[in-house]
Design a protein that fits this description.
Layout: E1 2-10, E2 18-24, E3 31-36, E4 49-58, E5 64-72, E6 80-85, E7 105-111, E8 116-122, E9 130-138, E10 141-144, E11 149-151, E12 160-163, E13 171-177, E14 185-187, E15 201-204, E16 209-212, E17 220-227, E18 233-235, E19 240-242, E20 247-249, E21 258-263, E22 268-271, E23 282-289, E24 292-299, E25 303-311, E26 319-320, E27 327-331, E28 335-340, E29 350-356, E30 365-367, H1 379-416, H2 419-430, H3 432-444
Antiparallel strand pairs: 1-4, 2-3, 2-5, 5-6, 7-8, 8-12, 9-10, 9-11, 9-13, 13-14, 15-16, 16-20, 17-18, 17-19, 17-21, 21-22, 23-24, 24-28, 25-26, 25-27, 25-29, 29-30
Helix pairs in contact: 2-3
C-alpha cells in the first residue's frame, strides 16, 4: 500500500533553503526526503505558504506513521512531529480498492440432513491461492475446526463442501487469500441457532454439581427452576450471568422436575436434564396394610428429608393442613424409613409432600396414592369427570322418562280399543285380501 503526504506550512524568516521530511513507523525502515525552495530572493519568501508533497511511502492498513519535519539549515534543533493512522481494511474507501484488503466473498448453502455446507468464493484476488475452513468464533479469534482447504486460482469457480458436527451459532466459514497477514472474511450460517447451546449440561453425581459449559460465547442468565408440569417453571434463586464462562450449581438434588432456565435478549429456554433417564437418588411411595397408611422413603445416598401432609381439595394445589407440622427425617445410604399416617387421612383428600433438605437446590415430590381416596389423586381430572357425568346423567334420566311415558300411552290406547277394532286388526293381519275387498265394497256406499 502506497501513502502520500501533503504538507502546508509558512516559511520562517531567515536563510531557510528547504525542509527535511521523514516518515517512520514500528516495523518499517524510515523514509526521508529533502525539499529545497529554489532561488528565492532574501526576504521575499518570508510569510509565504509552501506546499510540499511527500513521495510514496509503503505502509500497511492500520499502521501508525510518524511524520517529522526539520528545516534546512536546522536552527536550534527545531523539529515538528505529527502522527497519522492509516485506515483499516474495513474502511469503505480502501476495502475493495487495495490489494492487501481484498478478501473475496463467500456464498453458501446448507444441507441439514447431511450436516454439510456448500461454499463458493467470489471476487477473490487474481492469481492467488485461496484458503477455506470452518472455525468456532470466540470474540475476535476464530479457532479452526480441522485442516483448511486450499483452492487454486483456476478452481475458484467450483464449489467446495465442508462438513460440520453441530449447527452452533458461533460456527463460521472463514476464507482468506493464501499470503502472509492477509485479512480474512467470515460468515456464520447458524448465528441465530441458540437452541443448540443449551444441550451441554452435565451432572457430577459424586460432587452433586450441575455444570453447563457454553460451546459458544453468549450473554445469558442461567438459573434453576421447578417445573410444574405445564409451561411455567418456578425459580429456585441464584441466577448466574455468563458471557461464555462455565456455570456450576453446587449441591443439587437430581430430579425430573428440576430444570435449567436460560434467558437471553432474544428469549428464554427451559431444559430439564433429568427428565429422561433414571437420575433420582431417592424415592417416596405410599403403602397400606390392614387399613393403616404410611409413606416409605428409600435413598441411595445419605440424605435428610422434610415430610408434611397437605390437602388437595377444594384447591388443585396442595395446601398444608392445620395442626399438621412437617417433620424432618435423616436416612442413611441404601436404607429406607417410614412415616405413619393417621386413620383420618382417608376422610379428606390428603397427599404427602416430601423434599430433600440437605442440599441447596431441590424440588418437592407429592404422593397422593392413598388406597382409600383414589378419587382425590388428581383433582383436575375428577372435576372434569364430574363436568361430563352430570350432563350425561341428566340426559339419561330424560330419555328413560320419555320411554316410560311412551309405554304408558300405548297401554292406555290399547284399553280404549273396541272388540270390533281388535277383530279388524286381526283380519288385516290374517286375511288381508278379503278385508281389502270389504273395505272397497263399503266405500261404495
Amino acid at each position: 500500500m502506497c501513502f502520500f503526504f501533503c504538507l502546508v506550512f509558512d516559511v520562517f524568516p531567515g536563510d531557510i533553503r528547504g525542509v527535511s521530511v521523514c516518515a517512520d513507523s514500528a516495523g518499517m525502515i524510515g523514509h526521508c526526503q529533502i525539499y529545497t525552495f529554489g532561488h528565492v530572493g532574501k526576504g521575499k519568501a518570508t510569510g509565504k505558504q509552501v506546499d510540499v508533497q511527500f513521495k510514496c511511502v509503503p505502509v500497511r492498513p492500520g499502521q501508525l506513521v510518524f511524520v517529522t519535519l526539520k528545516t534546512i539549515p536546522n536552527y536550534c534543533k527545531a523539529m515538528w512531529t505529527q502522527r497519522h493512522l492509516v485506515p483499516e481494511c474495513s474502511h469503505e474507501g480502501i476495502r475493495d480498492e487495495i490489494t492487501e484488503c481484498i478478501t473475496g466473498k463467500l456464498v453458501y448453502t446448507v444441507d441439514k440432513a447431511r450436516n454439510m455446507l456448500t461454499v463458493k468464493v467470489t471476487d477473490a484476488p487474481e492469481n492467488t491461492d485461496y484458503n477455506l475452513r470452518l472455525c468456532h468464533k470466540r470474540n475476535v479469534i476464530c479457532a479452526g475446526e480441522g485442516a483448511h482447504r486450499t483452492i487454486k486460482p483456476q478452481y475458484l469457480e467450483s464449489s467446495i463442501t465442508l462438513h460440520y458436527s453441530k449447527p452452533l451459532p458461533c460456527l463460521c466459514i472463514e476464507g482468506w487469500p493464501a499470503r502472509v497477514d492477509a485479512p480474512r472474511v467470515q460468515v456464520c450460517p447458524f448465528k441465530n441457532n441458540l437452541e443448540e447451546l443449551w444441550s451441554g449440561i452435565t451432572y457430577d453425581l459424586n460432587k452433586e454439581e450441575l455444570i453447563w459449559e457454553p460451546l459458544c460465547p453468549v450473554k445469558v442468565s442461567v438459573s434453576l427452576c421447578h417445573a410444574d408440569g405445564g409451561k411455567s417453571c418456578q425459580d429456585l434463586g441464584n441466577v448466574f450471568h455468563s458471557e461464555g464462562q462455565k456455570v456450576i450449581f453446587s449441591s443439587v438434588d437430581p430430579h425430573p422436575m428440576l430444570c435449567t432456565k436460560f434467558t437471553t435478549e432474544v428469549g428464554a429456554w427451559i431444559k430439564c436434564p433429568f427428565a429422561k433417564g433414571n437420575f433420582s437418588v431417592w424415592t417416596a411411595k405410599i403403602t397400606s396394610k390392614d387399613g393403616q397408611q404410611w409413606a416409605e422413603i428409600s435413598t441411595w445416598v445419605k440424605a435428610s428429608f422434610s415430610i408434611s401432609v397437605c390437602e388437595m381439595k377444594p384447591s388443585p394445589q396442595c395446601k398444608p393442613i392445620e395442626g399438621n407440622k412437617f417433620q424432618t427425617l435423616s436416612v442413611d445410604k441404601m436404607k429406607h424409613t417410614v412415616f405413619n399416617l393417621s386413620k383420618s387421612a382417608c376422610e379428606v383428600c390428603v397427599c404427602i409432600k416430601v423434599q430433600r433438605v440437605d442440599v441447596r437446590f431441590s424440588v418437592p415430590v407429592l404422593q397422593c396414592d392413598l388406597q382409600c381416596s383414589s378419587w382425590c389423586r388428581v383433582p383436575e381430572r375428577s372435576q372434569d369427570i364430574e363436568k361430563i357425568l352430570l350432563p350425561a346423567l341428566i340426559i339419561l334420566t330424560l330419555i328413560l322418562a320419555a320411554v316410560l311415558f311412551g309405554r304408558m300411552t300405548i297401554k292406555d290406547g290399547d284399553k280404549k280399543r273396541t272388540p270390533w277394532t281388535k277383530l279388524r286388526c286381526l283380519r288385516m293381519v290374517c286375511k288381508p285380501r278379503r278385508y281389502n275387498r270389504h273395505i272397497m265394497a263399503s266405500s261404495a256406499f
